[in-house]
Model the fold of this input.
Amino acid sequence: MTKRPTAGFDTADDYRRSHLERGGFYDSVLAASPFDAYMTQLEGDYLDEVMPVLFPSVRPRCLDFACGTGRITQKLVALSAEIVGVDISPS
Done:
């Protein structure tokens, strides 16, 4: 197996650079793609189903790391006692 050269390549930095300014248009990109729009809806429906099963007697505190535009954060507001979203992109 040939190893990929890593000298001078920081995958974390590459990810940060590629996502830094996506917030302003990310949701519209998802909505424009039928598959992505379907997966977004499915994701929300799944959270509605799984959260009460995982936490039947208490609303949990949640952290949405790499929350992007807050799609999941917004969904969990009604299902959580407290939620914090953190993302690299200010937008």
